[in-house]
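Quick start: what a row looks like.
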Amino acid sequence: MKHSLNFICTGNKIDKRLSKIKYPDLLHYEIQFVIMIDSQEYFCDNYFPFLEFLHEIKPWLNDEFDDFIFECTDTEDNPLISILKKDNMQYKITSTWELFNNDVLFSKDTIKAEILNCIKKLGIFID
């Protein structure tokens, strides 16, 4: 069975290069960020620090690591989002804020495509 994944990113367009934004300014840009798995809301944060997330996930997007663990500076409920490599080059998304137990696996390409769609929608340039 093929599963669906959708990242919904709602926020103001910033039209900036990620490399030009440094801490603590990364923490000031928050969006509503929702992860949908099989059309069900799996994760939702109305004040998600998306630039901090991008700063941290960039090495994973560039295939420098197998697993990605995002520990947000604004919460003690960490890791906020993890992407963990499982069997057959498949990945599981987990969160301490998950709204249901999730055993669904996705390819890295599928997850990357959702992240890149958010980047494009929000006008962020990664270099």
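That is the whole record. The CA atoms of residues 56 and 66 lie 14 Å apart. The chain has a mean pLDDT of 92.
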